[in-house]
TrEMBL record:
<feature type="domain" description="AMP-binding enzyme C-terminal">
    <location>
        <begin position="400"/>
        <end position="476"/>
    </location>
</feature>
<feature type="domain" description="AMP-dependent synthetase/ligase">
    <location>
        <begin position="13"/>
        <end position="348"/>
    </location>
</feature>
<dbReference type="InterPro" id="IPR025110">
    <property type="entry name" value="AMP-bd_C"/>
</dbReference>
<protein>
    <submittedName>
        <fullName>Acyl-CoA synthetase</fullName>
        <ecNumber>6.2.1.-</ecNumber>
    </submittedName>
</protein>
<dbReference type="InterPro" id="IPR045851">
    <property type="entry name" value="AMP-bd_C_sf"/>
</dbReference>
<dbReference type="InterPro" id="IPR042099">
    <property type="entry name" value="ANL_N_sf"/>
</dbReference>
<dbReference type="Pfam" id="PF13193">
    <property type="entry name" value="AMP-binding_C"/>
</dbReference>
<dbReference type="InterPro" id="IPR020845">
    <property type="entry name" value="AMP-binding_CS"/>
</dbReference>
<comment type="similarity">
    <text>Belongs to the ATP-dependent AMP-binding enzyme family.</text>
</comment>
<dbReference type="InterPro" id="IPR000873">
    <property type="entry name" value="AMP-dep_synth/lig_dom"/>
</dbReference>
<dbReference type="GO" id="GO:0031956">
    <property type="term" value="F:medium-chain fatty acid-CoA ligase activity"/>
</dbReference>
<dbReference type="Pfam" id="PF00501">
    <property type="entry name" value="AMP-binding"/>
</dbReference>
<keyword id="KW-0436">Ligase</keyword>
<dbReference type="GO" id="GO:0006631">
    <property type="term" value="P:fatty acid metabolic process"/>
</dbReference>
Length: 488
């Protein structure tokens, strides 16, 4: 039995706004009635697990809330996934039903599932109180991106959702008076758990932009929204628009909290936004398997390039290849390992992968490399598999070199990888998109630029120029798509 429901405001709902997508919205009373009626249908159907066709709509939010009320694990499906990936996810998670909007056209991979159309309109008063469900019971099964093999189903227990959202409430001073605006997809942790369930757990409200636009951000922040969630590509567009959009500057200046996540926000975008608005974007760090681990606190120093300090209840350490702790300091690069109530339960149907993911003592191996400053702030330097470069006896994180490159006026986008080198072991390779294609900075110029900001051994030894960097839906650079044959 849960000590309290995941969404306390639905137990005695009032008429305050809960969710809004465009011009369609629901109060808490309306959400309780609509989601409660659907939850009763799921219970009557004996559903053991349901898929949710996760479009950025009111239907998706109501469907997920209904599954939580019914105590039925939900599997959010990315509508942009290919047939093969969807087929794998459906076969692996074996949902009995798929929840979708009445007008949604579902692909053939879902043809074998029973369909329930979600109608986000109240169907009479809210049904009886939600089921009593253990905090250890699964709430969601969220699939990884599958960059190193077929996507794995991450089983997230109800207690982990509550723990991470309450820890963020502490770090961000998040209350029921806050109004969150974002334009994130709803098939992953950032948009769904933080962006929808986060406001609902606090008893506040959420306004979804649909398609992200700086005009939409300005409109919502100017009309009562207090918090903005985004990913670096969104904040980059904000930074680019600020000189020409005074309404955006004013709206951002009045926001209580600007939060970026899902990938590192380049330092130069941090500085451009802070300079124009007086507001600093704060970053947090999490994963599908761990939910949120660290954040810059609302009452702390918003230090560009860091993801803050561990959240309440989260233990974090940096370790070397032998799982020995690495001391704090600029050269203490180690893998982040975490443990706490925010962790997933297992990879669905993958006991081998689950076991391999943990070190002795229940520490989860994140695969992310970082350094820890003496005051506890964590600075991520990249992924162990793709961003840790071993060159000339040094361990070099790609992230700090990328930030240095982005400080050069001639660089619009940057990625850094390592490639085999007979002398150094690996050499640092810079991939850039120039700010002006007719004036591409030279390797010597960029190497000198990096060496003066970081250290000489971190300078790039090879330069490759692209028209654009390959990215996924969340704006993360797909480094495995970069190869020696690409670029000029």
């Amino acid at each position: 039995m849960e000590s309290e429901p995941l969404i306390p405001a639905l137990t005695a709902p009032g008429d305050s706004p809960a969710l809004r997508f465009g011009d369609r919205g629901l109060t808490y009373a309306e959400l309780a009635a609509a989601a409660g009626a659907l939850a009763a249908r799921l219970t009557d159907a004996g559903a053991a697990r349901v898929a949710v066709w996760a479009t950025p709509t009111l239907e998706t939010a109501v469907g997920v809330v209904a599954a939580l009320l019914a105590g039925v694990p939900a599997v959010p499906l990315n509508p942009r996934s290919g047939e093969g990936e969807l087929g794998h996810i459906v076969g692996d998670s074996a949902p009995s039903l798929v929840l979708a909007g009445p007008g949604d056209e579902l692909p053939a991979a879902l043809a074998g599932l029973g369909r329930v159309d979600v109608r986000p309109v109240p169907e009479g008063p809210a049904p009886a109180a939600p089921r009593e469900v253990s905090p250890a019971a699964p709430a969601l099964v969220v699939y990884t991106s599958g960059t190193t093999g077929p996507p794995k189903g991450v089983v997230l227990p109800r207690g982990a959702l509550a723990a991470t959202l309450d820890a963020l409430a502490d770090a961000w001073q998040w209350t029921g008076d806050d109004v969150l605006v974002h334009g994130l997809p709803l098939f992953h942790v950032h948009g769904l758990i933080l962006g929808v369930l986060g406001p609902l757990r606090r008893g506040g409200s959420m306004r979804h932009l649909g398609r992200f636009s700086t005009a939409g951000v300005a409109r919502e922040l100017a009309s009562g929204a207090t918090m903005l969630f985004g990913v670096p590509t969104m904040y980059h567009r904000v930074a680019e628009a600020l000189p020409d959009e005074p309404e955006l500057v004013k709206a951002l200046a009045g926001a209580r909290l600007l939060v970026s996540g899902s990938a590192a926000l380049p330092v130069h975008d941090h500085e451009r936004i802070a300079s124009a608005t007086g507001r600093r974007v704060i970053e947090r760090y999490g994963m599908t398997e761990t939910l949120m681990n660290t954040s810059v606190r609302a009452d702390g120093a918003a230090r560009a390039g860091t993801v803050g300090v561990p959240l309440p209840g989260v233990e974090l350490r940096l370790v070397d290849e032998a799982d020995q702790e690495v001391p704090a300091g600029p050269d203490g690069v180690g893998e982040i390992q975490v443990r706490g109530p925010n962790l997933f339960t297992e990879y669905l149907n993958r006991p081998d992968a689950t076991a391999a993911a943990f070190a002795d003592g229940g520490w989860f191996r994140t695969g992310d490399m970082a350094v820890r400053e003496p005051d506890g702030y964590v600075r991520i330097v990249g992924r162990k598999a793709t961003d840790l470069i071993k060159s000339g006896g040094y361990k070099i994180g790609a992230g700090e070199i990328e930030n240095a490159l982005l400080e050069h006026d001639g660089v619009r986008e940057a990625a850094v990888t390592g490639e085999p080198d007979p002398d150094l072991g690996e050499r640092v390779v810079a991939w850039i998109v120039p700010a002006d294609p007719d004036h591409v900075p030279s390797l010597d110029e960029l190497a000198s630029h990096v060496a003066t900001r970081l250290a000489p051994h971190k300078r790039p030894r090879t330069l490759r120029v692209l028209d654009a960097l390959p990215r996924n839906d969340m704006g993360k650079i797909l480094k495995r798509s970069l190869s020696a044959g690409d670029g000029d």
